[in-house]
Amino acid sequence: MAATRTTEYAVRALVALALEGGNGRVKQAASLAQVSGTPGKFMEQVLRLLRQGGFIVSRRGSGGGYELARPAEKIRMSEVVEWVDGKGRGRDEPRDVLGEAWGKLRKESEAAASRVLAAESLAKLAERVQAKLAAKGKTTEYQI
Questions:
Q1: What is the value of pTM for the model shown?
Q2: How many independent structural domains does the chain possess?
Q3: What span, in angstroms and rounded, lies between the C-alpha atoms of 56 and 41?
Q4: What is the C-alpha to C-alpha distance for residues 73 and 57, in angstroms, rounded to an integer?
Q5: Quick check: helix, strand or coil at residue 144?
């Protein structure tokens, strides 16, 4: 199960928000794009998608921006991948024997990947990133 580029950027944005500590500090889209290495316009689309999924909330005004909608410990990485990749969308399956066998194998692999991602919270992932950043001596300014 390969994550899409959109999913990768969404995870990067969520980790950046989680690293802010979730203490009401908001980050603007441009800042999230910069630390995640995401093109600005694309980040806006990713943030809209994450907001629709209930992962983040936006604050308007001069001090506005984005923050996590719930604690990072409550966000499972499987939720993020399933929402962003649109796993629920139906796929056209070939109706031959190979198509059936391949479809079954793909579903099994997606289920296994989903179990691994379900065991990981955004908070745990952010802790891993923070440890790597600290090991590199980057504690305040960072690029994920």
A1: 0.80
A2: 1
A3: 18
A4: 16
A5: coil
User: 122 in a domain, yes or no?
Assistant: yes
Q: What is the SS3 assignment for 40?
A: helix
Q: In this structure, is residue 58 part of a structural domain?
A: yes
Give exposure, 42-75, as e/b (b: 16+ Cβ within 10 Å): ebeebbebbeeeebbeeeeeeeebbbbbeebeeb
Of the candidates 90, 28, 89, the one whose C-alpha atom is nearest the C-alpha of residue 56 is: 28
CA dist list (Å): 5 to 22, 91, 112: 25, 19, 20
Please name the residue that has the structure tokens 């994550």.
3
pLDDT tens for the chain, 144 residues long, are 566 889 999 999 999 999 876 566 788 899 999 988 889 899 999 999 999 999 999 988 887 899 999 999 999 999 999 899 875 444 556 678 888 888 888 889 888 998 999 999 999 999 999 898 888 887 655 566
